[in-house]
Amino acid sequence: MSSFPVSDFNPAPAPPQKSKSLRWIVIIAGVGLVGMVLCCGGPLLLTYFGFNFAGKILASQVRTMIESNPDFASEIGTIESMEMNIMESARYKQEKGDEGLVFDVKGSRGSGQLFVVPEPGGKEFSMIVLRLPDGREIELLSAELDVSMPELN
Question: Which phi and psi (to 5°) does residue 21 adopt?
Fold first, then answer.
């Protein structure tokens, strides 16, 4: 007969199981938070990226039209950055009622804002005006329309 220690036959009791309710609360809260972000933030992000994408396409079209303009080249130089300014575009539309767009442009010689008014068909531009920081405005492209730029602060 072999002698076994008594402790081998009487193992210690298993530790009590931890409650899983805290884990489920965290999972449900996480899923709810992700759902709220997708529901509320998704359309906002989609709108932002949509305007950003459209602004880049329009900026490239405007850029090709104005880069060779001697007045533009003398004031701005070579374009380093050109981005659509959504807030100023909205203000322009509110003040003038036109479907105009505003672009912030920076170049090797200076910076300014471009006010661009598309034709009613939307494929060409009827007017492009460069507003410099000192308040001067230079018409880079104009039609017979009498369109004055709004006073922006």
Answer: -65, -35
